[in-house]
Design goal:
This protein has 10 helices and 12 strands. By secondary structure, the protein is an alpha/beta fold. The structure holds S-adenosylmethionine (SAM). S-adenosylmethionine binds next to β5 and α4.
Length: about 280
């Protein structure tokens, strides 16, 4: 007999993330649907979609995940693209939403599958997309961010996996980090320039040593990269998502070419996180 899928357990920080995504997606879909001058077709892409539901760590209650929230938004998006690597999660999502003609579900690595989906949302074809990039760790490749940044038709929310990065790559002694972990970070960052940002050389009597810098210097450098290298026009400071001990688990980035989108995302971040008040 087939084993029933056990939903992932999520903490309060993930519930906040889900609310932020929902609020932004609602505003985005409303604004685009109300445009009268040029009729745009707007699409929702969830590249690390999950099963569609989770259980909360606090009560065990089943809650909707980001793809189901997106399907419930009114006015609706015109099409939905959901990707996940895990076949049991994809099956659960397909059982729930796969029969709809506006829903397209892909089982596989989003670094591969997105290359098939992104050409469907070109700016010149009056297409626009909101793309959610929400991995648990360093699973996204920079080339995808670079491709999206150049398109001008796609805005993103990106989970910057600080905990995975701190645990596995930005160790106190970088020399002790394996080649495999360095490669994961290079693939995510796009090159190895993170090393100079994440470590500074301190002098001592024995020729100096490398000292780790802060989460903030790393994320600020990544924010600038999204603008200067990937080419997104607006990238506000990300929102720090904190766990029970107040340590940052990940940063939620938003990037767009649209000034109105930036304003709305900043307002939402500000409402949820006093860290983002300027
Ligand atoms: C944080 S969960 C997504 C949660 C979902 N966005 C939500 O809020 O409901 C991350 C998901 O990414 C999937 N995943 C991991 N690596 C992947 C990859 N390379 N491509 C696509 N999905 C992947 C995992 O199976 C997992 O379901």
């Amino acid at each position: 007999m087939e084993k029933e899928l056990e939903y992932d357990f999520i903490g309060p920080w993930s519930e906040i993330k889900l609310e932020i995504l929902k609020k932004y997606a609602k505003a985005y879909s409303t604004i685009i649907s109300n445009q009268t001058k040029v009729k745009l077709k707007h699409v929702y892409i969830d590249a690390f979609a999950g099963a569609g539901h989770h259980r909360t760590k606090e009560t065990g209650e089943v809650v909707d995940g980001s793809p189901i929230n997106a399907l419930n938004i009114k006015p609706s998006f015109q099409e939905y693209y959901f990707i996940d690597l895990n076949s049991a999660k994809i099956k659960a999502l397909s059982d729930e939403a796969g029969k709809r003609s506006d829903v397209h579900i892909y089982e596989g690595d989003c670094n591969v599958e997105l290359k098939k989906i992104l050409p469907k949302v070109e700016y010149a074809d009056f297409k626009r997309a909101l793309c959610i990039l929400d991995p648990y760790g360093l699973h996204l490749k920079w080339e995808i961010l670079q491709q999206i940044g150049q398109m001008k038709s796609v805005e993103i929310f990106l989970n910057f996996p600080m905990m995975d990065i701190n645990r596995n790559v930005l160790r106190r002694k970088i020399d002790s980090v394996s080649e495999e972990q360095i490669k994961r970070m290079n693939d995510f960052w796009g090159d190895n320039s993170w090393r100079e940002i994440a470590y500074k050389r301190e002098p001592d009597l024995f020729g100096g040593y490398e000292e780790k810098t802060s989460n903030e210097s790393v994320t600020e450098a990544f924010r600038k990269r999204l603008q200067d290298v990937a080419g997104f026009r607006y990238v506000p400071r990300p929102m720090a998502m904190r766990g029970p001990t107040n340590a940052v688990l990940y940063y939620l980035f938003f990037a767009t070419h649209n000034s109105n989108g930036e304003k709305i995302a900043k307002d939402i971040f500000r409402k949820y996180n006093s860290d983002n008040r300027r």
